[in-house]
Specification:
Radius of gyration: 20 Å
Order of helices and strands: HHEEEHEEHHHEEEEHHHH
Helix content: 40-55%
CATH architecture of the largest domain: Alpha-Beta Complex
Strand order of the largest sheet: 1-2-3-5-4
CATH class of the largest domain: Alpha Beta
Distance between the termini: 41 Å
Structural class: alpha+beta
């Protein structure tokens, strides 16, 4: 996120990965068609020089920019969708607490000018013992959770989202994977309903705090990017950070490693380890059935196996 932008008259198109993903969405082709004009609007209206977009991504154009004052920045223009709707609101709320700064945003919140994150290496690529790196990521998460949500914060409640997910899971199970472990699926349906309603506190959730969304920075060792924010039970956030730094599932007996890592998270975050594991189990099952829905059965089976290991470690 720190490359110097090259002066261009017409902004470059999004990466092919983004174009493929967005084309398949309702309204996606129209958004892609209008994107050059949208980018030129930001370029002119915010007086920016834009470079070529960064590689990767799923639903947004993200690239380096330079302001009229010569400052480095990053422009992000997202395809309008549910998960991106609250990004500007959350970044504005967090300020300097664990996330990159929001410099300005469009009226609809889908166009963001962000501070650069330098040197910008992802936590997933850092060298070190997995649990040491996990501790670094957990400290970022603790910063994000440190501010109490304010009245009137325009973010979707976690409970609304997980209520939707419980209904989708109940419908997808018999249609897509009827042979899935019935105890695991029923437990997940119950957890998606009960966990948000029994939280002892509410925080502004990052929503996707995976190791690729934590970058090395100068004003702080690590900063979070690309939130998909909601408000609710903090335990929801942990699953991708624990499971994606490396793969405990490669171990013959993953249970002891999972319990140790969730114990470490509980110590740093001040949340019960069993509740963190319950949330991670539920999220892994929900994600598996989402993958089945889009035809990614191999990935779905891997996440369902992960969920089974998490449930076993948690004693669910």
């Amino acid at each position: 996120m720190s490359a110097v932008p090259k002066r261009t008259a017409t902004p470059a198109p999004p990466p092919k990965s983004v174009a493929r993903n967005v084309e398949a969405l309702d309204g996606g082709p129209e958004w892609l068609e209008s994107l050059p004009e949208t980018l030129e609007g930001f370029q002119d209206g915010w007086e920016l020089e834009l470079g070529r977009p960064f590689k990767g991504g799923t639903c947004s154009w993200v690239g380096p920019a330079r302001t009229a004052d010569g400052e480095r920045a990053v422009l992000k223009v997202s395809f309008p969708h549910r998960e991106a709707r609250g990004e500007a609101e959350a970044l504005r709320f967090w300020g300097d607490a664990g996330a990159i700064r929001l410099l300005r945003s469009s009226a609809d919140g889908f166009g963001l000018l962000l501070e650069t994150c330098e040197p910008g290496a992802a936590l997933r690529d850092a060298v070190g013992e997995p649990e040491d790196l996990l501790s670094e990521g957990l400290e970022v998460l603790a910063q994000l959770w440190s501010k109490r949500p304010e009245p009137g914060l325009r973010l979707e409640p976690l409970q609304t989202v997980t209520d939707d997910w419980s209904g989708l899971l109940a419908e997808r199970w018999p249609r897509l994977r009827p042979d899935a472990d019935p105890h695991l699926v029923r437990t997940t349906i119950d957890l998606l309903v009960s966990l948000p309603r029994t939280a002892e506190r509410s925080v502004v959730l990052h929503g996707d705090i995976n190791p690729g969304n934590i970058l090395s920075a100068r004003r702080s060792p690590w900063l979070a990017i690309d939130p998909k924010p909601m408000t609710g039970d903090p335990g929801y956030d942990l699953w991708p950070l624990i499971m994606q730094l490396d793969s405990p599932m490669r171990l013959i007996e993953p249970g002891p490693t999972l319990r140790r890592r969730f114990g470490l998270a509980a110590d740093i975050l001040g949340e019960p380890a069993d509740r963190l594991m319950a949330w991670s189990t539920a999220r892994a099952v929900e994600s598996a059935f989402h993958r089945y829905e889009i035809g990614a059965y191999e990935a779905g089976d891997a996440e369902l196996a992960q969920a089974a290991a998490l449930a076993d470690a948690a004693g669910l």
